[in-house]
Amino acid sequence: MADKSPGKEWIHGLLVTIASLLLLAAAPQRQIFRGASDLLGTILSVPEYPAVVLEKTARETAFWLQDRRGLQSRLETLEEENVRLKVAWSVGSALHLQQELDRLPGYARVTLREPFSWWSEVRINKGLRDGIRSGDPVLQHGFLAGRITSAEAGFAWVELITSSSLMVPVVIEETRDLGVVAGDGEGGLWLLYVPEGRSLTEGMTVSTAMVSEALPPGIKIGSLSPETRRDSNSYLAWRVLPGSTLSHLYALEVLGGTLKEKKPINPVSAPKGGAKLP
């Protein structure tokens, strides 16, 4: 069995003490150690860089997706509220308009206008018990808009002047030339059967003529536009710009009898979109 010598242990202890003193002496020069540490960190940052970038990108993407889901949810909620508010406002506006029209004495409100016959006919909420009869002229803003074709107790049907089946005898007020106004079923209104060579110009007024008792004379229809065309009989047809707003109708005036039995119509004082009943 080997015998441990006490002298070697003493030597080891002395060497440890000397190393400790040397480290203590080098402590004021710690900048050397710091530089080495920084160099080592720089070297190690190169292989770590992709992992750091990937981790940062993943974290930012997760935050963005979470924020986007929250914003999308809030946007959908706001859109639903907006739709509900629009519906409520539209219903309220329609009811307010209906009440306003019903409060106006003598006004017939348009209650039905079907898409496939948009330019042909409308239904109003006045009928036989209100004194309306078949054949009565119907006005809007003081201009002819159509005539009653059928009437029941509580409603009546109005054929519009833009209907292709309604032909109205008219006169050009400036020249006293006679003709016929008819619609094309698509919103257009045309002056037909005017003899060639007549000096018609844009802006001349077209009114109902005293040809029959079906319509009272002197009801304005509109004015001539510069657009012309040849019809099937080689007559020169002029487009008429109607004075009534036929694209949207809310209320109409129905004339019972002749204009001599009615008060003069003032288009300026008549409510917009409405017309007075007898």
Level-1 CATH class name of the largest domain: Mainly Beta
Which regions contain 5 or more consecutive residues with pLDDT less than 50? 257-278
The H/E string reads HHEEEEEEEEEEEE
CATH topology of the largest domain, anyone?
A: Thrombin, subunit H
Counting helices, strands and paired strands, the structural category is alpha+beta
Main β sheet profile: 6 strands, antiparallel, barrel
For the largest sheet, list the strands in their spatial order. Answer: 1-2-5-4-3-12
Give a written overview of the molecule.
34% of the residues lie in helices and 25% in strands. The chain has 278 residues and is an alpha+beta fold. It is rod-shaped.
Task: Describe what is shown at a glance.
This protein is 34% helix and 25% strand. It is rod-shaped and about 150 Å long.
Keywords:
278 residues; alpha+beta; Thrombin, subunit H; 2 domains; 6-stranded antiparallel beta barrel; 6-stranded antiparallel barrel; rod-shaped
